[in-house]
Design a protein that fits this description.
about 625 residues, alpha/beta, 8-stranded mixed beta sheet, 6-stranded mixed beta sheet, elongated, disordered N terminus
């Protein structure tokens, strides 16, 4: 007889039931552990398991306890963490629907290696050690399969341990809450449902749907109400039948909101960008709805009525609403809604643009080719020259607008080099700052249409600094301030210089931000060697080089100038580590830009075209693969 445990409030009660036998067998067939077993074998497994429910915040197993069972998630989500010597918690993984946890202890007989906690109300299958031993005797393949799962999980943990503030991946359910006046919540959730349905079956659940099935006022029923078990069972059944559940809630319906949050993987606040949140006190306390014992990932959508609106409100909202991520969405833009869905489900496409001096103009051509091939760009980041290109794209400019800006700046590129007495640097960067301010004004990074980041190198901390908020022009200047040529940027007590010194192609940073989506890396750093045909003696006279350059009859010496030498020096570490970044990227593009000098700014249109034509050819090779990645 199958044992079924249901909870009322935070208490567990057990009831016997044979009604769910067929349903449980069907659900077991979809789990990672049992999806290769026959129906006859699954019916045997059924006799050894029990179905249990754990409310949000409840501990399933503790580190150091005897390992007497394993769990499989039918619905819900768990987090796995270890306690460090200093008493802090380090998250080492999350367990989503159809995945298992606790296999290692049940195999080895050793104490639990980690603590497991329910992130939300969760429905689980529990298999005891005795039940496991019985199953292994009749199904030896089960032992092999569990061993494989353990090895894969350990490998993943070693290479990419989770952090506390990391966005939840593999989201199955989202609660959507309007938090300002004027939000068309029903229409918004319907638009979102259309976007999610392109990925997989999606069910929209609101208060009206619950009361249509269970009667008037049922959505507002207390968790101690006898009706609660029926509602929970119905919600769990929907989660089994659909890949995604969207819960439509609002701040006024407290019991319905409470129920939504207990069954959700993430909360999506929605506000009209030009308005203010209705009650930010409630928003700060909303995580208490699940008992306050586990964090709920919260994100924010700022809605805009027209395409002519310019984002300018993020800082105000983010100061009042505590969220891990925010999105700017134009109401009539299907493109924006599709981007939102990809980001929410860990399918956002990230594009990383390297530094490379004037060769960075190739990035513009690459982005144009990606757009023409309808390959979406949901997150964009860059270093040095790449930070400038990525920022123009993130602002939402079309390719003609980007071309006109570059013509205005770089047809007379020498005006950017305002020489000064070289105590700290060769140039003052006053003119460079003026150009950046002229192009970007006082735009804040958090107000860009597309998620953006750039990186600089901190001389103070000898580490990378990731810029994801603040003045856009200042972040770009820091990312592109090549030491020796330009002075460091002084910000919050740190001296910042070109990000390419430490990482000229920050694929790993993009991987962390994109949360599992495919990453396209564009590398224009060049593979050519820096050479000179001058045989240098014990010393090198700059006057000799100068005489050679101004003498019209002398054979010209091929030797790089100080700017190129400094630029190349700054890129050495990144060039040597380029193979690691290339391996970490899902798709790698390297336009043939070697014929162009690192300082050849006057050839920007030719370099753009090289990036465009080479990327069109590259796309033909892997376009189908990236589309498949998005679907999966």
């Amino acid at each position: 007889m199958l044992k079924l445990s249901c909870f009322t409030s935070n208490r567990e009660i057990s009831v016997n039931s044979s009604h769910f036998d067929e349903e449980i067998v069907n659900r077991l067939s979809k789990t990672v552990l049992f999806n290769q077993f026959s129906e006859r074998e699954l019916k045997k497994i059924r006799t050894e398991i029990e179905v249990v429910h754990y409310p949000a915040g409840e501990i399933l197993m503790r580190e150091g306890e005897p390992g007497d069972c394993l769990f499989i998630v039918l619905n819900g989500r768990l987090r796995v963490f270890v306690t460090l010597p200093n008493g802090s918690e380090q998250i080492v993984g999350e367990v989503a629907r159809n995945e298992s946890v606790g296999e290692m202890a049940i195999l080895t007989g050793e104490p639990r290696s980690a603590t497991v906690q329910a992130l939300r109300d969760s429905e689980l299958v529990r298999l005891s050690r005795n039940g496991f031993n019985n199953l292994v005797q009749s199904n030896p393949d089960l032992l092999v399969k569990i061993s494989r799962i353990i090895i894969q999980r350990l490998r993943k943990t070693i290479h990419s341990p989770l952090q506390k503030d990391q966005l939840v991946e593999k989201i199955a359910s989202i609660t959507i809450i309007p938090i300002s006046e004027g939000v068309p919540i029903e229409e918004f959730t319907e638009k979102l449902q259309v976007g999610f349905s392109k990925i997989g079956p999606t069910q929209l659940i609101n208060r009206k749907a619950i009361e249509r099935i269970f009667g008037g006022g049922s959505a507002q029923s207390d968790l101690s109400d006898p009706l609660n078990s029926d509602i929970v069972r119905w919600l769990n059944k929907n989660e089994t039948q659909y890949q995604f559940l969207l819960y439509e809630a609002d701040l006024a319906n407290s019991q319905w909101l409470n129920r939504c949050i207990r069954h959700t993987d993430a909360i999506l606040f929605v506000g009209m960008a030009k308005s203010r949140p209705l009650n930010h006190t409630i928003l700060n306390e909303i995580s208490l709805e699940n008992g306050g014992r586990v964090p709920i990932n919260k994100e924010l959508v700022l809605l805009y009525q027209g395409f002519d609106d310019i984002p300018n409100y993020a800082a105000r909202w983010l100061n009042l609403v505590p969220v891990s991520e925010h999105y700017h969405i134009r109401w009539d833009s299907t493109k924006d809604f599709n981007r939102l869905v990809r980001r929410l489900t860990g399918r956002g496409v990230g594009v990383v643009l390297s530094g490379g001096g004037a060769r960075g103009f190739a990035h513009f051509g690459v982005l144009r080719a990606l757009d023409e091939a309808n390959i979406p760009i949901d997150i964009i980041g860059g270093v040095s020259a790449g930070s400038f290109v990525a920022a123009l794209y993130a602002m939402g400019l079309d390719h003609q607008g980007i071309l006109e800006i570059n013509k205005a700046i770089f047809r007379k590129s020498k005006r950017l080099f305002d020489l000064t007495f070289p105590i700290v640097s060769f140039i003052k960067t006053k003119k460079f700052s003026e150009v950046l301010l002229d192009v970007f004004g006082h735009t804040q990074i958090e107000d860009l249409w597309i998620k953006y980041f750039c990186v600089s190198s901190s001389l103070t901390r000898a580490d990378l600094l990731i810029h994801q908020k603040g003045a856009l022009w200042a972040a770009i200047k820091a990312s592109a301030s090549l030491p020796g040529i330009a002075p460091p940027v002084f910000s919050d007590g740190e001296m910042l210089v070109d990000g390419g010194i430490l990482d000229n192609l920050p694929v790993t940073i993009m991987k962390d931000i994109s949360k599992g989506g495919p990453v396209i890396a564009v590398d224009v750093s060049g593979t050519d060697e820096l050479t000179a045909d001058l045989e240098i003696g014990p010393s090198l006279s700059g006057w000799k080089i100068l005489r050679n350059k101004i003498n019209p009859f002398a054979k010209k010496l091929q030797i790089p100038n100080v700017f190129i030498i400094l630029l190349r020096t700054a890129m050495l570490r990144s060039i040597n580590s380029a193979s690691l970044s290339r391996a970490a990227a899902d798709f790698y593009i390297h336009p043939p830009i070697e014929p162009f000098s690192l300082m050849e700014f006057k050839s920007f249109e030719k370099i753009m075209e090289v990036g465009y034509e080479s990327t069109k050819k590259e796309i033909e090779v892997w376009k189908d693969r990236i589309i498949q990645d998005l679907l999966n």
